[in-house]
Design brief:
52% of the residues lie in helices and 0% in strands. It is mostly helical. The protein has a domain at 50-111. The longest helix has 35 residues, at 85-119. 18% of the residues are buried.
Length: 124
């Protein structure tokens, strides 16, 4: 014996407000992505690019590696739409600044060594 479907307010005969379906109401079918494949990347929902993080870390550890990683990270972020653009940019900026300071220090040290070597000699 089957019973007739219920009717009246709140039983699906009136349009409901909000995003939640009523009890017994079926949502439209959306097929899942094929097995072993992922859907297209969602903007803003991806993870942070690892090379961008490493670029910022290596800016303080060994700046030339930070420069290389920063450029690679920015290229990957443009292709994959991952997060981390600001990390890669700051990694590049800091890496270039620290590399410049390091080169300035090395040139100053080299100049100091040459100056000390020439001023200490006496002529016979």
């Amino acid at each position: 014996m089957s019973y007739p479907p219920p009717s009246g307010p709140g039983w699906g005969d009136q349009p409901h407000k909000g995003d939640q379906p009523h009890w017994g109401e079926q949502l439209p079918y959306t097929p899942p992505p094929p097995y072993g494949q992922y859907g297209p990347p969602q903007p803003g929902s991806g993870s942070t690019n690892v090379m961008a993080i490493l670029s910022l870390v290596f800016a303080f550890v060994f700046a030339p590696v930070g420069i290389v990683l920063g450029h690679m990270a920015r290229k990957q972020i443009r292709q994959t739409h991952e997060q981390g653009e600001q990390l890669a940019l700051w990694g590049l900026i800091l890496s270039y600044v620290f590399t410049g300071l390091y080169l300035l220090f090395c040139c100053g040290w080299f100049g100091l060594v040459i100056w000390a070597g020439t001023s200490g000699s006496t002529s016979p």
